[in-house]
């Protein structure tokens, strides 16, 4: 039996982490508080699923540690992301530097991620509520949930932000991170909607343009 890995959060990052860990022989369990994994993926790129961008430079990021974003991307950059998706069977297309699945269907991406999780025998516990703050039990991690106790050798927090509560990103992961001593910087919205007077603006929903 390989190392037991617990992943809290069944969004895009949690599913990708589960696949990577399982491919290396780990026994993986995803804990997701929604009724299914990957809900937020369906709204990515207006339903077309923007997988990554070819232009990733330090000027694209605002960070108190200027070098941090690029250090992360050097570990897993655009080519790594493209190789990962193509390894799942996703054919991609380039639209002005934005990478989409050739089908432009987010549902197709989610289906292939779920198929790979099933193929790798990743255990998925949906509707899973964490009853107490995760803690250490010896050298292992203990998660007390409505399903009972879940023990693992490693714990990955992949809970996302609080950008879309209806899809599961409700900010609940911040408290979990703080319980392990991490410092959480006050989150600020990075991508927000515009609300306009007049009904005709509704027809412009989903249109991308250069603006100022």
Specify the overall morphology.
globular
* Binned strand content: 15-25%
Main sheet specs: 4 strands, parallel
* Helix vs. strand class: alpha/beta
Estimated helix fraction? 10-25%
**Strand tally:** 10
Task: Please outline the helices and strands.
Blueprint: E1 4-8, H1 12-23, E2 27-32, E3 52-53, H2 68-75, H3 78-87, E4 92-95, E5 98-101, H4 106-119, E6 123-126, E7 135-137, E8 140-145, E9 148-152, E10 154-157, H5 172-179
Parallel strand pairs: 1-2, 1-10, 2-6
Antiparallel strand pairs: 3-5, 4-5, 7-8, 8-9
Supply the key terms.
single chain, 212 residues, alpha/beta, four-stranded parallel β-sheet, three-stranded antiparallel β-sheet, 25% helix, 20% strand
Structure description:
The protein has 212 residues and is α/β, with parallel strands linked by helices. The chain is 25% helix and 20% strand. It has five helices and ten strands; from the N terminus they run βαββααββαβββββα. The protein has helices at 12-23, 68-75, 78-87, 106-119, 172-179, and strands spanning 4-8, 27-32, 52-53, 92-95, 98-101, 123-126, 135-137, 140-145, 148-152, 154-157. A four-stranded parallel beta sheet has the order 6-2-1-10, sandwiched between helices. Strands 3-5-4 form a three-stranded antiparallel beta sheet. Strands 7-8-9 form a three-stranded antiparallel beta sheet, with no helix packed on it. A hairpin with a 2-residue loop joins strand 8 and strand 9 (148-152). Helix 1 (12-23) packs parallel to helix 4 (106-119).
């Amino acid at each position: 039996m390989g190392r037991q890995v617990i992943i809290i959060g069944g969004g895009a990052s949690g599913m990708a982490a589960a696949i990577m860990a399982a491919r290396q022989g780990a026994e993986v369990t995803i804990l997701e508080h929604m009724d299914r994994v990957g809900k937020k993926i369906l709204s990515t790129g207006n339903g077309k699923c923007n997988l990554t961008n070819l232009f990733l430079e330090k000027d694209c990021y605002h960070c108190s540690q200027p070098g941090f974003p690029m250090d992360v991307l050097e570990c897993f950059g655009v080519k790594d992301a493209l190789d990962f998706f193509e390894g799942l069977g996703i054919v991609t297309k380039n639209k002005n530097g934005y990478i989409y699945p050739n089908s432009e269907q987010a549902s197709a991406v989610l289906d292939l991620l779920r198929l790979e999780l099933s193929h790798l025998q990743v255990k998925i516990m949906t509707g899973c509520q964490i009853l107490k703050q995760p803690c250490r039990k010896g050298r292992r991690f203990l998660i007390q949930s409505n399903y009972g106790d879940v023990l693992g050798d490693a714990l990955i927090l992949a809970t996302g932000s609080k950008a879309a509560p209806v899809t599961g990103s409700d900010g609940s992961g911040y408290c979990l991170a703080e319980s392990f001593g991490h410092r959480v910087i006050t989150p600020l919205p990075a991508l927000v909607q515009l609300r306009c007077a007049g009904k005709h603006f509704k027809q412009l929903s989903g249109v991308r343009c250069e603006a100022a």
